[in-house]
Structures are given as C-alpha cells and as structure tokens.
Amino acid sequence: MHSNGHIHDNGTGFEPILLILLMLVIVIYIAAVIISNRRYKKWPLYRTFLWILGTLCAASAIIGPIANRAHMDFTAHMVGHLLLGMIAPILLVLAAPITLALRTLDVQSARRLSKVLKSWPLRIMSNPLTASVLNIGGLWILYTTGLYGLMHQNALLHALVHFHVFIAGYLFTASMIYMDPAPHRFSFMFRAIVFTISLAGHDILSKYIFAHPPSGVTKVQAENGGMLMYYAGDAIDVALICILCYQWFKATRPKGSLAL
Amino acid sequence: MDFKPRNQKDQSISELRYTYSARNLWSGFLFGIGLVAFIDEAIFHQLLHWHHFYDKSTTNIGLVSDGLFHALSWFATVGSLFMFADLRRRKGLWLKRWIGEFCSGQVLSSYMTESSSTSSCASIKSVTMSIFSHTT
C-alpha cells in the first residue's frame, strides 16, 4: 500500500498554511511575554525557549523530512508520533501557556478564559482518566484497526489523526503535571496510579505492534517501530514521572522550616 | 541528676523515624522492586540477551502483566528515591527499616520478573537475586 499508491501530495496544499500557523503560535507567545512583562515581573526566559522548542518538535513531525518519510517508513512514522504526541506536549505544558494568557489578557477576557477552564467539558477532559483513555485508547484504535492504513489514503483523515495525537498528548500531559492553574485537581496518588496504567498501556501496545504489524507495514518495520515506541516512550515517560514526583516533593515540603 | 541524651539531635531523629515509619517502608520496598526490574532490563535483556523483547511463547496475559510491571517499576524507582529525599529532609530516615524493605522488594521483584519472562535462565537469576538480597 505504501510502496505503490500514495500519490496524493497533501504536502503542497497544507504545508505553507501549517508553516504560517506555527510561526504565528511562536510570535503570539513572544508578543504575550513582551506585553505582560511591562506589567508583571519578568516571564522566565526558559519558558519562551521551551515553547519555541515544543512548537519546532511538533512542526518537525508534520512538515519536512520526517513527515515525508513517515508515509513509507513506519519507524519514521513512530519518530514523528513520539515528537508530536509526547515530546512536544511536555515542552509546551512546561511553557505554561494558560498562565501567560491569563496575565496578558485584560481582566474581563481573563475572567472569561478562566470560566471556560472551569466549564464542565474541560472538567471531564482534564480528568486524568479521560485524558489517558483519549491518548492511549486513541493509539490502540490507530494501530490495531485498519485506521492506520486508511489514514494514508485520505489526507483529511491523516490530518485529523495527527491533530488528535497532539491534542490528546497535550491533554494527557497537562492532566498529569500541573504547570498551569488547574481548577479541578486530583491527588498525586491518583495521578500516579492512572499514569502507571497508561504507561503500561503504551508499553503493551508497542509490543503488540512488534508482534502484529499494522495494516500495510512490513514485519521488520513493525519490529523496529515497536521497539522505538517502547524504549523512547519509556525515556520520555520517565522524564514525566520525575516532574510529577518533583512536584510532589515540593508540595509536601515540611511547613515551618526553611526549604532544605 | 536527670538523664540527658548524648545529643539533642539524636533524640529528635529517633522520634521522627517512628512518625515516618510507613514512608520508610514504602520507599525501601519500592526501590527494591524498581532496582531489580532495572537490573533485569539492563543485564538480562540488553547485555546478555537472556530475555527477549517479544518471542513466540509470549502469551497475551504475559504481555499485559509484563507491561504493568514494567510501568510500575519505573514509577517505583523514581518515586521511592524522591521519598528517600523527603525522609532525609524531614530527618525521619530509618535506614535499617529501609534496607529491610529494600530486600523484600528485591525478592518480590525477582519473582515477578521471572514469572513474566519466558527465559529458562530466569530461575537461576531469581535465585541469585534472592541470595544477594538476603546477604545485603
């Protein structure tokens, strides 16, 4: 399927628009930093850096050499998936975009934004359980049904799947580590348990791909892709575990004593 | 003449460690589990190739239990070390208790890695691990 067909060059249609969109995302963030720095204390430089890096990670998964190779090569597809669904979300969450938005907007709009954050759809979606099902469940559907093969024949479906991988990845990361103000918080223990189960789901899926190649993927490619998903996914998730545990470590600091 | 502890700090340490007795238990136990799982991954999978990433004899339930145990061991390793740091910060570390639980975590973990892997060499490893943990 990949070797013969794949003629539609969706790249030429989407790429300039995507490129402008991604540039805009970076420009808006920097503009917000400059504007809000006038009124409040200086926004840390590393957050701007993380935001740019995160956007570039997401960009490299959908435009450029990795994205082009991903149509033929399952391993390249997996590199793109790791960049778009795991690394970019962590970097973007660490850049605390909601906090920046709240301190840049005027009071009225900021109130409206926080009302949206408190609304019931976001309450449901930011629940670690829902976010995990959307993230890991989405991947299970993608790789164990015919969706993976179908995605390469339909440009719209292709874009939609990538959008879902990114959004679900961001939602999952944001529901596990609280960098931004989160109105509906869950205990560290609950998040740790849900995280462990979803990491297990990720590991099991990568071994499943190793043994049962998705439609249109050769055995060797599925084995390489599955192993990459397993080990690289582990490495990224360990980083996430470290951040979560560090937040616990800070939150349980004994009161009434100087920190360390 | 009233009795005075040799030093005020010692006294406070011995009291605090009872307060954090449960945290000492979990920290040591989870680190034991995590370390053995890490040794299994690094030595028996990567260096010696005694265990395989996946082979024909891997059952579905083996796949699931392996995945769950693998994920748990990562969280256990990192989380237990943060708990260790927290105990030190609170001056509540109870080293003997910690090491004792560390050993039982290791024993449990070595049986877990044995049951979830398909290698025939696993039992040898498990016994070695048990001996190692008992002598610690």
Concise overview:
Chain A is mainly alpha-helical and 260 residues long. In chain A, 77% of the residues lie in helices and 0% in strands. Chain A has one domain.
Features:
heterodimer, A: 260 residues, mainly alpha, disordered N terminus, B: 136 residues, elongated
Based on CA inertia axes, which overall geometry of chain B fits? elongated
- Quaternary state reads heterodimer
**Can you give the mean pLDDT of chain A?**
87
- The total domain count of chain A is 1
Termini separation of chain B: 42 Å
Count of separate DSSP helical elements of chain A? 12
Estimated radius of gyration of chain A: 20 Å
CA gyration radius of chain B, whole angstroms: 19 Å
**What order do the helices and strands of chain B follow?**
HHHHH
Low-confidence stretches of chain A: 1-11
What's the N-to-C terminus distance of chain A?
59 Å
As a percent range, the share of strand residues of chain A is under 5%
Structure classification of chain A: mainly alpha
Helix percentage of chain B: over 70%
Q: Which structural class fits the helix and strand makeup of chain B?
A: mainly alpha
Strand tally of chain B is 0
